Amino acid sequence: MKRILLLSMISIGIFLTACSHTDSSSGEREQMLDELDPNRENKTQNNTDMQDKLGYVNYTRDQIQEDSEEHHVATLNRIEMADMIARLILRNEGFNEVATLVTDAEVLIAYDRSDEVDRETAAEIASKTAVSVMPGYFDVYVSDNESLIPDIQSLHNSSANNKNYHNTLEQIISEMKKSPQGIQHKEDISD
Q1: Count H helices, E strands: the chain?
Q2: Hey, which bits of 94-151 come out as E strands?
């Protein structure tokens, strides 16, 4: 009787071990396939640092044609871009304060520079930084006129539909053009 009980327990143990091995290898395989699928929804985004993620997609022509009705439009987070530009400029010696405004087609940068960096060099640094970050169709305007910082700040809550917005924007740009502008186009960077 003890022998039958012992054999039964061993059989049950082997059976449970085999079942758990099958379930885990099946689960691991499904997990690998899920991770390799670029079209899956990434449910772990909240748990990992997005800076470590790579961007990858893989589509067939049929998938895109089916999707064309949804009109996928790439968007640019203007606040994040303005933040990135200002932070990058401030990493350079000689800048005390930087105000950056990103509109739908322009980047306006007003800054307070110290005397240890000359006007042309400061304009070059600010302009090259914005040009390196933004898509090529953006016009970049820079100025070391500190009085423009509050003017740029006054626009940040404005709507492009506001009738005074465009006039104010043009006035600020006109004033900024009186300062050295540094480099203006991505093509000029390679020169």
Answers
A1: 7, 3
A2: 95-102, 106-113, 139-143
Burial of 182 (0-12, 13-18, 19+ CB in 10 A): buried
- Please give the domain boundaries of the chain with CATH numbers for all domains: 2-70 (no CATH), 78-189 (3.30.300)
Residue position matching structure tokens 């039958």? 4
CB 128 within 8 A of CB 189: yes
Give Cα 6 distance to the centre of its chain: 63
Q: Say what the pTM is.
A: 0.64
**2 forms bridges with which residues in the sheet?**
none
Structure tokens at 161: 């539909």
Asked whether the beta carbons of 140 and 127 are under 8 A apart, the reply is yes
Distance of alpha carbon 79 from the chain centroid = 10
| 155-187 tens-digit pLDDT | 887 777 777 888 899 999 999 999 989 866 545
Q: How far is CA 160 from the centre of its chain?
A: 23
